[in-house]
TrEMBL record:
Organism, scientific name: Paeniglutamicibacter kerguelensis
Ranges of residues in domain Thioredoxin: 64-205
Protein name, as recorded: Thiol-disulfide isomerase/thioredoxin
Keywords annotated in UniProt: Cytochrome c-type biogenesis, Disulfide bond, Isomerase, Redox-active center, Signal, Signal-anchor, Transmembrane
Cleaved signal peptide residues: 1-31
UniProt-annotated location(s): Cell envelope
Gene Ontology MF terms in the entry: isomerase activity
Highest taxon above the source species: Bacteria
UniProt KW Signal keyword: yes
Organism ancestry: Bacteria, Bacillati, Actinomycetota, Actinomycetes, Micrococcales
Pfam families for this protein: AhpC-TSA (PF00578)
InterPro entries cross-referenced by the UniProt entry: AhpC/TSA (IPR000866), TAT_signal (IPR006311), Thioredoxin-like_sf (IPR036249), Thioredoxin_domain (IPR013766), Thioredoxin_ResA/DsbE_sf (IPR050553)
Length: 208
């Protein structure tokens, strides 16, 4: 008969390997080279699901009658600016949950930058960083030219609060909030530019 404890060392070995891999990925330099694909982004495209909770890019839209109450967030961004959901009334808001060593986050970062510029004055973009301290987060933002603010949520307070609205389930997750501050759409995994753009436009064209 097989000893039921015989698999424990291999499990421990796998856990040790995964932890080491995550720490190594977090230490990778964030500088991007023109014409050279980011190594973590390449890893995500290979589909091996390393260093992040994988999302499949699935989109969930919520009709006005099925939406929960408005999302409430009150925090301070890395740049010192105050983030208060009370200020979002009447505008569409995009919340992007990310961290620097997350390969799919790096794939979608240019899309976020382009769309935040395209919808400037119409939709507010806010990042929620689930893992990084200030230096790592700001290095990522410099690498990809991100100008919109991000909030540190390494303790998970915002992520926990979001469970009463919609489950996040993956990193990255992107939420589109309607002009009443309610979640109108969720993307699990990489937010492709055409998809996110369409979701924002839908939220913008809805009547209050």
């Amino acid at each position: 008969m097989t000893d039921p404890t015989s698999s424990q060392p291999s499990r421990l070995g796998r856990r040790t390997f995964l932890r080491a891999a995550m720490l190594a990925a977090a230490a990778l330099p964030l500088a991007a080279c023109v014409g050279e694909e980011d190594p973590l982004a390449k890893q995500a495209r290979e589909g091996n699901n390393k260093n992040y909770i994988a999302g499949d890019g699935s989109v969930q839209e919520y009709g006005p009658k099925s939406r929960t109450e408005p999302v409430e967030i009150n925090a301070t961004a890395y740049d010192g600016s105050k983030i208060d959901s009370a200020d979002w009334a009447g505008q569409v808001t995009v919340l992007n949950f990310w961290y620097a060593a997350c390969a799919p986050c790096r794939i979608e970062a240019p899309h976020m930058v382009e769309l935040s510029d395209e919808f400037k004055g119409k939709a507010e973009f806010i990042g929620i960083n689930v893992r990084d301290e200030k230096d790592a987060a700001e290095a990522f933002e410099r690498t990809f030219g991100i100008k919109y603010p991000s909030v540190q949520d390494t303790q998970g307070a915002i992520q926990l609060a979001m469970t009463k609205y919609v489950p996040l389930q993956a990193v990255p997750t992107t939420l589109v909030l309607d002009r009443q501050g309610r979640v109108s759409a969720r993307i699990l995994g990489v937010a492709e530019k055409p998809t996110l753009k369409a979701l924002i436009n839908t939220a913008l064209t809805e009547s209050l």
